[in-house]
Amino acid sequence: MHDLCCIGHITLDKIVTPKNTVHMAGGTAFYFSHAIKHFNDIDYSLITALAESEMKEVDKLRSEGIDVAVMPSKHSVYFENIYGENQDNRTQRVLAKADPFTVDYLKDIQAKIIHLGSLLADDFSLDVVKYMAEKGLVSADSQGYLREVRDKKVYAVDWTEKEEALKYIHFLKANEHEMEVLTGHDDVVGAALKMYEWGVKEVLITLGSLGSVIYDGKTFHKIPAYKPREVVDATGCGDTYMTGYLYQRAKGASIDEAGRFAAAMSTIKIEASGPFSGSKEDVIHCMETAEQKFPEI
């Protein structure tokens, strides 16, 4: 029985910013695993799917102590992310797709918390979500469910099976755009209430540099954003946030404690290219010293 398990594709990413163009691995599975490897007090496992050509990324993770299981796939997911001066704005294309995860492959998983790192709408079927809910508390990021690929372009779509799937999801993250697509509400309170009504037990709404809000059916927890020293690369910030939050919740931290830790991890990540590479001490230092901005709801 693991404390925490992440299931998701490791991708090939082409990241274009006004300063430079970088080719690197990516995806929820990549950012989550590389962030959590810095915390040695949790039993973590990754299940991914990629082509043989990208197995070197799995070898790296294993060499750093991460337990990784690989479901074979003909292709790896290949994303192209283009950012403008404002890192909140991103243009995206998908140049290749990997195989979706199957119930058969996931039968041996046992974990307290299972994070589904969906990147595209068909990564995890409703059957997989239901099945995982029998194994542990299911966590999901809504962004993948709201992305459909047609002719390599990524289109924003609604999550067609959301009302059924969300009955089985304990933790759900959405940003301000995703919450509106999901619920029809452009206000945090209305969107959070609707997602909770559908069955989500902890609704996490991230608002970028304005902070985040977590709703548990009783309280709207206002989580501050910590001001970074410099904004370098926002790719993977949402995944880093979820890493910090689920890590802390798995360790028994309160929602507020977990949210603040997650926000500080995201701040440290945005200050450099690539995945989070700080320590727990760095996160605590950020929480204690960085300028804070609380969300307004």
Automatic annotation (TrEMBL):
What GO MF terms are annotated? kinase activity
Tell whether Chloroplast is among the UniProt keywords. Answer: no
Carbohydrate kinase PfkB domain residues are 4-276
Q: Does the keyword Hydrolase apply?
A: no
- Superkingdom is Bacteria
Matching SUPFAM superfamilies, A to Z? Answer: Ribokinase-like
Going by the UniProt record, its keywords in alphabetical order are: Kinase, Transferase
Protein name, UniProt field: Carbohydrate kinase PfkB domain-containing protein
Q: Which organism is it from?
A: Parabacteroides goldsteinii dnLKV18
